[in-house]
Fold Chorismate synthase.
Amino acid sequence: MLRFLTAGESHGPVLTAIVEGMVAGLPLSREYVNRQLARRQGGYGRGGRMKIEQDQADFLSGVRGGLTTGSPITLQVVNKDWANWSEIMAPGPEARLEERVVTRPRPGHADLAGAIKYNQQDIRNILERSSARETAVRVAVGTIARALLAELGIQMTGWVRRIGSVEAVLEEEQTADQLRELAGASQLLCPDGQAEAAMIREIDRARGNGDSLGGVFEIRVDHVPAGLGSHVQWDRKLDSRLAGALMSIQAIKGVEIGLGFGAAAVPGSQVHDEIFYSPEKSYYRATNRAGGIEGGISNGEPLVVRAAMKPIPTLYKPLRSVDTGSKEPFTASVERSDACAVPAACVVGEAVVAWEIAVAILEKFGGDSLRELRERVDQWRSWIRQV
């Protein structure tokens, strides 16, 4: 069973994760993980925190000589900003609890709901953990899964489809490799150059107005084996797991797979993918409106998922709120924030999608070493071609 837990606060000393169940013999380097952490910190529209932090992951266990050992993997990402918060956020009685107290909840954030749930007078005890800073270590965890998928020939491509009112337009015959190359060269992970320029202008306008913007990102996963997930129980459906993983990312408010919400607006003849057969391909579909999943099971076509991110709730032109101490109306408190973090959310999305696919692969094929797992996956792929 592949699983993980994360711990840590936005202004605490470190973010930590423990990963259990990863196969032995997986090539894994600090540099490989750090490349994904750098992608998460990039993107036009990011705020001041990214100028402080230069995220670097350290392995504290489970990796030796560049290979996983099969033992639990401990990851750590240090918060450089801890130096400015060590006295305020100290775990012992020396903590200066009277400083930087937050009593003004931000609309759209976990602030008020979390303070009520956990009976906290200082909202900082909520916002420190609910912050999207937590996604740094989740990207590190997802990158381990990404490394496993790469060893099995599974390719991940994430890109930004929309920011605010601007939507990217792609050429119909664009390949996954072309899409990955164009998105990788963009400040916004957007493969449409004209749309990217318009997105940047819209971000600049929002920032100038003290506002923020959301958007939509898309993730495509190629060469996923058919047969992952299951139809037999609600919690074993692959699309259910992917949707839950994406919705767990801070600020994500909607998820669709394949045609998604568009399927509600057209007849069934324009929704369902016709099935064909050839000796070379075995069963295949000429279209992929299902997004690679039918009945909760991967069908061998590329997985295509999209997520909608709301604008960051921390605004430099704060919305109205109520002080939880005095109960007087106030403008919501301002923490350091971004004008737009959709590209960063896309990188986090890639990480959580990679994780769920890796979990599904190990559930189906099992194995304690990379060699054993690869042999089983290759055998399955060979069998599928002759069904």
